[in-house]
Amino acid sequence: MNLVLTQEQQLIRDSVHDYLAGSYDFSAHFAQLDSKTALDAGRWNDMAQLGWLGINVSEGAGGIGGTAMDAWVVMEGLGASLCCEPVLSTAVLSAPLLETAAKNSAEAGKVLAQVLDGKTSVAFAHAESAWGTDFFDLDTVAEPLADGGYRISGKKTLVPGGAGAQWLIVPARIHGAANGDIGLFLVSGEASGLTRVGAPMLDGSWAADLVLDQVTVDVQAVLCLPEAGRGMLKQVMRRAISAQCAEAVGAMRAALAICKSYLLERRQFGKSLAEFQVLQHRYVDMCIAYERAYSMSLLAVDCVDAPTSESDLDLSRAKVVVGQAARKIGGDAIQVHGGMGMTYEYPIGHYYRKLLLCDVQFGSADEHLQSLMETSH
Questions:
Q1: 241 has pLDDT over 70
Q2: How many whole angstroms separate alpha carbon 83 and alpha carbon 97?
Q3: So what's the pLDDT on residue 376?
Q4: How many domains does the chain have?
Q5: CA 20 to CA 29: how far, in whole Å?
Q6: What pTM was computed for the model?
Q7: Most C-beta atoms within 10 A of its C-beta, which of 11, 178, 205, 242?
Q8: In a domain? residue 132
Q9: Do 252 and 329 contact (CB within 8 A), yes or no?
Q10: Residue 377's pLDDT is what?
Q11: Domain, as residue range, for 160
């Protein structure tokens, strides 16, 4: 585990910080919430030009050839700024998958090029339940057709970035496959038989519930051979957990900075709040929780870049520690601020919302802890 950023990663971090500081401060976040839009086209194009949407795409395919640690740097910065753009679903989950599929699918290559140009977004529609950590538990079914295409039927729940995505990647169980093969399919957001209902999430981002009623896709929409589907889905979900942990760590870092400033500036009984021992102890406990979460988020990166037989267990361990820290730091940050922390116009409550969402997406801390307990028996 490398705890020091490389020179290239420092440059990425600086570009993320500089751009978001100028273009996505808290007032911009507030405006995004009021607009109720799933994606800001101008900001999305800027992110493409900065290379963030191709962070995990090879240079030969038009990206910057970054690792999971490079993606960690981007997602950590986005979490610190409360950014709601669907970078995780498009750049971290979908774009690398499209690059792999583009070797055999012209359609996948076309969509990838549009993503890298900032002209489209893609959502990875994996979840069929609002809870659980078994990403292979799929009821959505893909029925093979004579021409090599498939007819897909099923439901997906709270798909991150799904409300405004022009394209969806849909995992589905292959009908009639005795060994439970899983296929990954590229579905247009305007496909016949597709119904989606947008849902605002806690942090202001937009997800969607999907219903696929005999949605037909051709052979170019098949992103992998069925026998390879499980392996590709596992890799996608590893990237998802790693990036979600990074986003949470960024939000925790920013929340701690806000708390520190408040404790130093706010005065009661003739002295700053930072001089009260009970608040000192609470803030130190928050910092300890952050450091543990930070370290475990880097372990999650290693599970993507250098997977081992323990990687899936380590990812669950990381999700547990990061999720617990997110709830503690978010909740204690509000307590430190008192009544001010509950006001909608003050940022700390919005960081709590972000942290709550980071905990529950891709399996909450409690669900991953339950999974670890069951694995140990």
A1: yes
A2: 23
A3: 76
A4: 3
A5: 10
A6: 0.94
A7: 242
A8: yes
A9: yes
A10: 63
A11: 123-226
CA distance 216 to 97: 21
* 84, 128: one domain: no
Same domain membership, residue 98 and residue 40 = yes
Please determine, for residue 107, whether its predicted confidence score (pLDDT) is greater than 90. Answer: yes
φ, ψ dihedrals at 12, nearest 5°: -65, -45
| Side chain identity, residue 226 | P
Whether pLDDT at 245 is above 80:
yes
Question: Is residue 315 within 8 Å of 242, Cβ to Cβ?
Answer: yes
For 341, how many CA atoms within 13 A lie in the half-sphere containing its CB? 19
Give tens-digit pLDDT for 328-344: 999 999 999 988 888 99
Q: Using the 3D structure, point to which of 226, 253, 279 is the last residue of a domain.
A: 226
Burial (Cβ within 10 Å: 0-12, 13-18, ≥19) of residue 274:
middle
What CATH number should be reported for the domain holding residue 80?
1.10.540.10
Per-residue burial over 103-137, b if 16 or more Cβ lie within 10 Å, else e, is eebebbbebbebbbebebbbbbbbbbeeeebebee
140: left (phi over 0), alpha (psi -120 to 50) or beta: beta
Per-residue pLDDT reduced to its tens digit, 171-182? 999 998 867 789
Residue appearing with tokens 């496909």: 191
Residue 1 has pLDDT above 70, yes or no: no
Judge contact between 44 and 78, C-beta under 8 A: no
Greatest C-alpha distance within the chain? 80
CA distance 298 to 313: 14
Which token pair is 321?
């520690």
What are the residues whose beta carbons fall under 8 Å from the beta carbon of 39, sequence distance 6 or more?
A: 85, 86, 121, 161, 164
- Minimal CA–CA distance to 206: which of 193, 215, 197? 197
* 312 token code pair: 């899936």
Are the C-beta atoms of residues 203 and 38 closer than 8 Å to each other? no
Cα within 13 Å of Cα(245), Cβ side: 35
107 and 11 assigned to the same domain: yes
